[in-house]
Fold this sequence. Notes:
Blueprint (H helix, E strand, L loop, with lengths): L1 H29 L8 H19 L4
Amino acid sequence: xxxxxxxxxxxxxxxxxxxxxxxxxxxxxIGPFGVTATAELALLSWLSGAALVLLVETSxx
Length: 61
């Protein structure tokens, strides 16, 4: 049972890290770069954050 809880917490941490990276990217895009804030931009930012987390997780270094 402990392994299941650890796996759930690990997956939640990855989703949280993706959300934080996506939020930073979103704020950078709508702030200094002047992109119009839309729901599509928010979703794309979150997906970019998730891709970054996945790349860092699976990097050979």
